[in-house]
Amino acid sequence: MAVLLLAAASPTRAASVELLNVSYDPTRELWRDLNAGFAAQYQKEKGVAVTIKQSHGGSSAQARAVIEGLAADVVTLASYIDTAAIAQRGLITGDWVKRLPNDSLPYTSTIVFVVRKGNPKGIRDWPDLVRPGVEVITPNPKTSGNGYLSFFSAWGSVVLRGGSRQAAIDYVTKLYKQVPVLDSGARGATVTFVQREIGDVHLAWENEARLEVQEAKGELDIIYPPISIRAEPHVALVDANVDRKKTRAVAEAYLKYLYTEPAQQTIARHFYRPMNEAVLKSHAATFPALRMFSIKEIALDFPDAHKQFIAEGGVFDKIYKPR
Amino acid sequence: MSHANRRVLPGFSLSLGYTLFYLSVLVVLPILACFSKAASLTASQFWAAVWTERTRAAYALTFGTSFVAAAVNVALGLLIAWVLVRYRFPGRRVMDALIDLPLALPTAVGGLVYASLYVKKGWLGQYLVPLGIQAAYSRLAIVLVLVFIGLPFVVRTVQPVLEDLDAEAEEAAASLGATRWQSFYRVILPPLYPALLTGFALAFARSLGEYGSVVFVSGNMPYKTEIAPVLIVARLEEFAYGEATAIAVVLLVISLALLVVINALDRWSRRSEAHA
Fold first, then answer.
1. Domain at A2-105+232-258: CATH code
2. Span A84-89, mean pLDDT?
3. A321/B53 touch (CB, cutoff 8 Å), yes or no
4. Which of A49, A57, A128, B152 could form a disulfide with A16 if both were Cys (CB 3.0 to 4.6 A apart)?
């Protein structure tokens, strides 16, 4: 709904510009702070007032909205899959991943475990999740980015530690048998785990897990498995829209701003892992080291992994085949 | 079609024109768009998308739970309408207003609330789960929330008919020696059939398309509690628009067929009522 209202973003005027940043669900607070920082800086340097509108929703629903004509100047979606789908329709052109530093990734994130106070089931690593009596909460990989990232992490935890493909299939089959509810999105899974008190471990985005534990006031703990997926929420300029709205210069400056020291600090404060090594190190207490494996270690890329594991006819579909 | 049967009310062509226009823009056009999107698939792609073990399980679940919920609503709705029309008691107006609440409440909220009531640690779940009654994350959960969503439709279609019903007929039946049960199902019930059927059809149709509340209570387990709209969303996540709309088209066609049957039943019951 907000999407429709924002779609009417007005064109540029001389000394004031409006940008639309189309993003995914949990980044509301992050972008509010980043936008304020950028607007202040741009005003000081260029004397131009920038207003940045934000639109949030499920990542792939947001991508579909942009494909259908939502006039986003930049997209900051949860997964390469969604940004690539927009690029595939010609709205983002060229080798867009390489246009910005660090493969257009101002920050990365990962999937971690949230457990009940004191970790009563002693969950430390992926194999612990399939012990008898452990209930796992994670959203449906078919309808949620958090869901498929959890799946990829689980898969990688087997094959990247020497397990065979069959061992990985056996592992995820067992794992999803211990998932009592497949919520449709990340927020639903959080409600199931925190409010309904269902399950022993919640596989969540690191930044969401941090907030979840903070808000639970001691009732929940965060556990870092030794290995997990490197989530890659790329940022990109939507070429077709910025050319039409004549906002390219501002939009480019906006995305470049994300790599500056103050922006990287803001990112770290919101529990996303900044790409700037120095900033990351200064927040070492917040971001324990773990092996964050790249999707390229288990598939060609994210779309390929989605096709092999999650999409119709993939590994995930076979898990639930009756009998 | 001219002077011979001039209509009493003016503006027939204008109002018909508007009706057709609105119907086309609001209903027919989106449905056509849906069909044309699905038509972008080849026949074999279409069948592969809509007819698998998993989609069949989802259709059966969607139609089955909607049917059961609508049937429950017919019984419950009749009872509630009866109480609201025939008895005067304090709080009746409040109760009457409450009936429409499911229409106003965002269904996702309804789903979330139902689930939190019936889970193991919920207000009701703490007593039901030990008895083996899983009223959250099960088929029963889907039926419960669909009953909630569909309730106003039966009550609001039956209520006005009941209000018009003369108590004299019942009194006559009683004085002619009918038992209370006889006067209920021979005198009161028959005039209500058309309204009950319409209410059933509305509640049923409403349930078929319900997504927001069901995803929060069903648990979405494939083959068990996964409704067809969840499959549509799953295909959209793959940017497989054609396949997603194909499933929607199947739902539409089956629903349309069922509604036609219900309408036919309705007309038949009205006619037999007139003859009685």
1. 3.40.190.10
2. 95
3. yes
4. A49
